[in-house]
Hints:
With 387 residues, the chain is an alpha/beta fold. The protein is 35% helix and 12% strand. The chain has helices spanning 27-41, 65-73, 89-102, 129-134, 142-157, 161-175, 190-195, 223-227, 259-270, 287-296, 305-312, 328-332, 339-352; strands at 51-54, 79-82, 109-112, 198-200, 203-204, 234-243, 279-281, 365-372, 377-385. The strands form 3 sheets. Strands 6-9-8-7 form a 4-stranded mixed beta sheet. A 3-stranded parallel beta sheet has the order 2-1-3, with helices on both faces. Strands 4-5 form a two-stranded antiparallel sheet.
Amino acid sequence: MRHLTPRAAISGIGELKPQRRTENVATMDMLMRVSAEAIADAGLTADQVDGLLVGPQVGETPQHVPAAVSEYFGMMPTMSNVVDLGGASGHGMIWRAAAAIAAGQCETVLCVIGNHRNPIPPRAANRNPAREFDTPFGASGANTSYALLMQAHMAAYGCTPEDYAQIAAGARANAQLNPMAIFYGKPASVEDVLASPLVASPLHLLEIVMPVAGADAVIVTTAEKAKQGPHRPVHLLGAGEKITHRAVSQAPNLTSGPLKPSIARALDQSGLGIQDVDFLSLYDCYTIMVAATIEDAGLCQPGQFGAWLRDNGGMGHTAAKPINTHGGQLGFGQPDLAGGMTHVVEAVRQIRGTTGARQMKKCDTALVTGNGATMSEAVALILGGAA
């Protein structure tokens, strides 16, 4: 009989007594109580848990579930996800946790699932800090939250509106070489960006992504099978993930985000330094996101992204380190949650050498970043082409 080599083990459990009905009970509170029980049963403290898998039915937070749960629990996991498999969700969490541990993304994973049985309509207290501390004071939606981050960055380092605007202008310039981009045939200069309406000061309209329809897909297989395919294989050389908060009011830092440790982890796994990376495929929902990522990647000191971009020769495929050659989301468009995947697809195309007029002269490695909520959830990948 064949036995699998042990990769992980269950060391703690928690369980709440079933109730036929609940009254004014928050799911988040139930998850916290049972999680505390499981952590204690394992002989651990909460800060020793660096992975989180949670079920999909957290009524107080239909989106950004791991971030909201992490924030409420006071966790900052390096791996997190929602497992949505109906009655098999709990089972699916176990092997995913083991896989994440085997992949070196975390060491100890909290797997938690549960829900209340309040009367309908629900009368439970909302345990989402964004609803309590952000929305009532006007910080509702991404525009105002990212404007706050940009204001803080400008105040801390003295960066100018022109510094940020060159990111939007660079994205539009790159989009002119990509017929699939929503802004193909519609370039915009720094002056055009600054002349566009202020949406949430200091963010101008052209510094904000345009939501569009679209989709992206990627096939991941073994290195051996990839060799047999029609294209140059693109290997995952390193990965990093981090969640620090959900609501911007709970952010531990307004000028640097969780991409900083995520990028460092991905680079460490790959054995590369940031200067060894050929291509930067950086999540760009707002210009401030790219500015902060350039600095968090260690390409320049905090507050110096503007000067770095000018010294870099801009963002195009002939720059010292090209950025978002497909136009990024600011130039290509943001097809909802697939917006981040467009950066993965462009990195693969550049490494394959199949981007046509925007092809880099040399592209063997790429840093690809993803961002969720308000600079809250971060993933960094280092991709490399087979020799």
